[in-house]
Design brief:
The protein is of the alpha/beta class. Helix content is about 30%, strand content about 15%. α3 links the parallel β1 and β2. The longest helix has 17 residues. The structure holds S-adenosylmethionine. The site of S-adenosylmethionine (SAM) has 21 residues, from loops.
Length: about 325
């Protein structure tokens, strides 16, 4: 295999069993966050890094990323609010359900790269796993710490929080993890390969690598189900259409290459894994904005789970969950 231009790993071979973007995507420049352990004194710390917008001359606008009710989920407050919505609950519960099928039994050591406010860390600590969260944003870590403080001692002692960029994680947390999670993070880095390669390096041979990314080929679905026809046509790359402007509309931004699930799977495989399964997340609920979960939430999750595990539904879901095993 040819070496990849972005890593020492062989060039990825596209796996067509997962949805493919089918187009070349360019990326915005990225100013990655600095690395701090939670124990590092705050003095002199840079403000938490935000993902900077594209320089107009460097990035081609491909389509709107999202429509109404879509916040910048790198913002801690936005993300914490999102995790309480039906869409947030569906997402987290489907990820947990899939992982239960593939993780080694507890106790095992899990690392959650870009673990945010610690939803999955808390969930798997409750299930008896030892979980380390590696997260660059101090506000996300503060929220994780706040929730952790209210958890039983048996959970608290199983969760460790480390501040830093996922791409530096080998240096920060070492290797040999039984499973490595990276959920909802690759859409925020300009180039997925360096981060995905690190995920594999972190994981012991035979361990699990779990990645959630956007389903780029199906991004028009939400706009269509919300009757935002101009956005829908723009997302379908129809000539002459650009995203609608005005209140409630998100600005147009370029789609990062991490939104192509086939590309993500191929990079992981080239780095030394084999795919075990992939799931769609949010086939039926993605257009529901900030609707809170109702009394039927368990049934909604069951329906989403059933759809997310089978064709053709999983191929049009908003997010794709890749589960791979490290082979070497
Ligand atoms: C949408 S949140 C997802 C949080 C969590 N993984 C979850 O699924 O609930 C995205 C997270 O990725 C983090 N992030 C962004 N760039 C990162 C990077 N280069 N390395 C590690 N984490 C990163 C953000 O700080 C944020 O907490």
């Amino acid at each position: 295999m040819q070496p990849s231009p972005t890593s020492d790993h062989p060039a990825p071979v596209i796996d067509r069993t997962v949805p493919s973007g089918g187009r070349t995507l360019r990326e915005p420049p990225f100013d990655g966050p600095q690395v701090h352990h939670t124990s590092t004194p705050a003095a002199g710390r840079r403000p938490p890094a935000r993902h900077e917008g594209p320089a107009a001359s460097e990035a081609r606008v491909l389509a709107v990323v999202d429509g109404p009710d879509t916040a910048d989920y790198t913002d801690a407050a936005d993300y914490v609010a999102h995790t309480a919505t039906l869409r947030g609950v569906v997402r987290q519960r489907l990820v947990t359900r899939a992982l239960i099928e593939h993780l080694p039994p507890a106790p095992a050591r899990l690392i959650d790269i870009g673990g945010g406010n610690g939803v999955q860390a808390m969930e798997f600590a409750r299930r008896g796993y030892d979980v380390t969260v590696c997260e660059p944003d101090s506000r996300m870590l503060a929220e994780a710490r706040r929730v952790l403080a209210g958890a039983p001692e048996s959970v608290r002692r199983r969760v460790e929080l480390v501040q830093g960029d996922g791409r530096d994680a080998v240096r920060l947390v070492g290797t040999g993890w039984d499973a490595t999670f990276c959920h909802g993070v690759i859409m925020f880095v300009p180039e997925p390969a360096p981060l995905l390669n690190v995920l594999v390096e972190l994981t012991r041979p035979g361990g699990i690598v779990s990645v959630v990314g956007k389903n780029g080929p199906a991004l028009a679905l939400r706009a269509g189900l919300q009757s935002r026809w101009q956005d829908t046509a723009a997302l379908l790359d129809e000539p002459g259409f650009t995203a609608a402007a005005g209140p409630g509309r998100q600005p147009t931004v370029p789609l990062p290459p991490g939104d192509d699930p086939a590309n993500v799977a191929a990079i992981l495989t080239a780095a030394g894994t084999r795919p075990l399964a992939w799931y769609g997340i949010r086939t039926f609920t993605d257009h529901l904005g900030d609707l809170p979960p109702g009394p039927d939430v368990d049934t909604v999750v069951d329906a989403e789970w059933a759809a997310g595990a089978r064709d053709p539904y999983r191929g049009i879901a908003r997010l794709i969950h890749h589960v791979h095993r490290r082979t070497e």
